[in-house]
Amino acid sequence: MDDIERTIHDFVADVLLEGEDISFDERTPLLKHRLIDSLNVEELIAFVESEYSITLSDWLHSKWETIESMAGLIRAHSPRSPEAAVSKTDVTPDAIATDYEKSVARYWNEKLNDPINLLLGAEDGLVHHHYGLGEYDPAVLSGSGADREAAIIRELHRLECAQTDVVLDAFGGMEPDGRLLDAGSGRGGGSFSAHRRFGCWVDGITLSQYQVDFATKQAARHGCTDKVAFHLQNMTRTLFPDGHFDRVLTNETTMYVDLAAAFGEFARLLRPGGRYVCVTYCVNDTIAPTSADCEAVDAHYGTRMHLRSEYLAALSAAGFSPSQVTVLNAQTIPYWELRSHSEHRTGVERAFLDGYRSNVLQYVLIAADRLPS
Ligand SMILES: C[S@@+](CC[C@H](N)C(=O)[O-])C[C@H]1O[C@@H](n2cnc3c(N)ncnc32)[C@H](O)[C@@H]1O
């Protein structure tokens, strides 16, 4: 337990249980377990609010059902939490300005107990928030119970790592002294993979302080804090100087931003000849400008996916010349089929499968080079 978890644990144990002999730890579900019967939730909320100078009123109960998840939210929100202070120095003052940006930041700050992502990265410390590519081994479906689920999880992770490999291949190499921006870095899985592959410097940026803190801890675990760092910054208006990067990556993040603003910023950040690689799901507008499947995916994640045609138009307008455009529907469909078998499926699988199979939704990789200005 860290300091925050210990503080909440002690409060629950000493004050609220009033001597009852109930065994619990930071993962015990406070709101589902019988603890809730004896636990004065109002008192606990008041304690946390005053101890950490935060307001809990707009937080979903489901997000603080355990001591662990409460502690995660506190870390992400509290100005007095030591972890929240890790990257205070390079927070862009207006990184999270619009109502939409606030909703995106809140979504990722509150995504704390997501087994479909955390379990997959538990073994090797590479936690991804993107999907997978390639055929799965059907043998993983032949077992039963916990063994079967563990095999599915391992296989999903293998496919997500294979996706990262395809994305990194599109950079066509990089020098160890090169600099890569991972724009929308999530929990850092892609940043660590890029550093492992190229030995390069990596800056990961995200709108979520929780993710900055999580990935910063993972960097220590991977022993690469000297070259890989995470920051709370907005990819449409970063703090980095002109021409600072040799490569920019967006792996399933551009559905959250205005393309002209993001690509304009990437053109500023990349040295001439530098390469930008983007993977995204998008609307195949040669078939229809939207569809029920695309809308279901957007509704599930709070994204605003763009039309495929908008990508190439916005890249050209920002001074990029595409060198690769690949539609990856066939390669990602097996991942979604396998994920549909997992106990940890989230309900969005059907929309992705139907969308990709009917081609109204496309999973696209684009590599583009920054033209000399
Ligand atoms: C689906 S996750 C992808 C994470 C990561 N690229 C991966 O492959 O695992 C989307 C990420 O984009 C980030 N994001 C969304 N809008 C952003 C913005 N305007 N600036 C920086 N990051 C943003 C979110 O905070 C989140 O980390």
From TrEMBL:
Pfam short name (any one): Methyltransf_11
Presence of keyword Transferase: yes
CDD domains, per database record: AdoMet_MTases (cd02440)
Molecular function GO terms recorded: S-adenosylmethionine-dependent methyltransferase activity
Domain Carrier positions: 2-78
Keywords: Methyltransferase, Transferase
Gene3D superfamilies reported in the protein's UniProt record: ACP-like, Vaccinia Virus protein VP39
GO biological process: methylation
UniProt-recorded name of the protein: Geranyl diphosphate 2-C-methyltransferase
